[in-house]
Amino acid sequence: QACAAYEQQMDEVAKAIGPLTPPSDCPLQLDDPDLLPNAPRDYRGGVHEGVDFICNELGHSAVTPLAGRVLVAARDVPEPTPDERIAMLEFAKSLGDAPPWTLQLLYGQFVVVDHGVIEGAGHVVTLYAHLESVDPALRPGVEVPAFTRIGEIGNSGTEAGGTGEDDP
């Protein structure tokens, strides 16, 4: 019953925000639950907190579908080595959940946009992670209209990013 109530609440939030243009022209694979929120992340403990758009090639822009204000523009985030990544993930798994600082490293290059309070939805904040690059004009406090380019979709912060694979 709690799950049905949560789903109803999320439906109401989605309706309050309204129809959104996806933040990428890359496909959203709704038939793959591993790419959606709350998918188990056994390798680090916890669950997936986002929605993955799979591009399989560089050159795709990420845009914000709502106007807002940039809170964080994290660029040039160092990739952990494969051994560092394994150690981080094993530690997070031993805790049963990934600490915020571990998640932040797993985001790679990322942008956080605050869209403010939307009636019926509450305070809406979006995070765009695993970017290949962050738009150089973005910095904390910058107001961005809807459809502003945030950066280029990539795989920073992922296992593939840490090993130098080119699989955004």
Structure characteristics:
6-stranded antiparallel beta sheet; 168 residues; 25% helix
Task: Please explain how this structure is put together.
By secondary structure, the chain is α+β, with helices and mostly antiparallel strands. It contains four helices and six strands. It has a six-stranded antiparallel sheet with strand order 1-6-4-3-2-5. It starts with a helix and ends in a 6-residue tail after the last helix.
Q: In order across it, which strands form the biggest sheet?
A: 1-6-4-3-2-5
The assembly state of the depicted protein chains is single chain
Instruction: State the separation between the terminal residues, measured CA to CA.
Output: 38 Å
- Which word captures the global form? globular
Tally of helical segments: 4
Structural category: alpha+beta
Could you tell me the radius of gyration in angstroms? Answer: 16 Å
Strand-and-helix sequence, N→C?
A: HEEHHEEEEH
Segments where pLDDT lies below 50 for 5+ residues? none
Summarize this entry quickly:
Helix content is 25%, strand content 25%. It is α+β, with helices and mostly antiparallel strands and 168 residues long. The model has no long low-confidence stretch (mean pLDDT 84).
What is the topological layout?
Layout: H1 2-17, E1 61-64, E2 68-74, H2 82-95, H3 100-107, E3 109-118, E4 122-134, E5 143-144, E6 148-153, H4 159-162
Antiparallel strand pairs: 1-6, 2-3, 2-5, 3-4, 4-6
